């Protein structure tokens, strides 16, 4: 890779700094948004920086340069473009992100995902965790326990 390629590290924006990043990004598009509006934008795009930037581009086309947008302006101009799947829900539950898990459940419900599919994904993760726990209790290494999951 050193001879024929280039490695460019791209670090994710820290979720606690996302609102500030989006506010600064809005400025590049000729918009001014307050911090609460930037946080709403981050929430509506589920932290997807590309989607958030595309929403800012769209807002810049709609509003004249220098327009100041507040929470209401973002709420009216930005659709909730988050798309969830049952695996996002399992991840949020495992991370203890209760408010995100609740948003995901509501999103899945509005998209018509049936309850058995949701239950399958959650029970699958619980079975995996239980199996890992059993392997660790038997004195196996974490690496071996993970390999035994056949994933």
UniProtKB/TrEMBL annotation:
It comes from the Bacteria. Coiled coil: none annotated. It catalyses: DNA(n) + a 2'-deoxyribonucleoside 5'-triphosphate = DNA(n+1) + diphosphate. Its EC number is 2.7.7.7. Gene3D superfamilies: 1.10.8.60, 1.20.272.10. PANTHER family: DNA POLYMERASE III SUBUNIT DELTA. NCBIfam families: holA (TIGR01128). This is DNA polymerase III subunit delta. It comes from Vreelandella sulfidaeris.
């Amino acid at each position: 890779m050193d001879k024929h390629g280039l490695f460019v590290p791209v670090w994710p924006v820290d979720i606690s700094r996302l609102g500030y990043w989006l506010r600064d990004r809005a400025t590049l598009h000729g918009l001014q948004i307050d911090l609460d509006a930037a946080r709403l934008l981050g929430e509506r795009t589920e932290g997807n920086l590309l989607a958030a930037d595309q929403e800012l581009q769209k807002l810049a086309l709609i509003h004249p340069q220098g327009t100041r947008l507040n929470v209401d302006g973002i709420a009216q101009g930005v659709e909730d473009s988050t798309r969830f799947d049952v695996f996002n829900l399992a991840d949020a539950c495992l991370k203890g992100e209760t408010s995100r898990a609740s948003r995901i459940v509501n999103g899945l419900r509005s998209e018509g995902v049936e309850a058995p599919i949701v239950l399958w994904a959650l029970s699958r993760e619980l079975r995996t965790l239980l199996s890992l726990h059993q392997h660790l209790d038997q004195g196996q290494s974490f690496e071996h326990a993970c390999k035994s999951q056949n994933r």
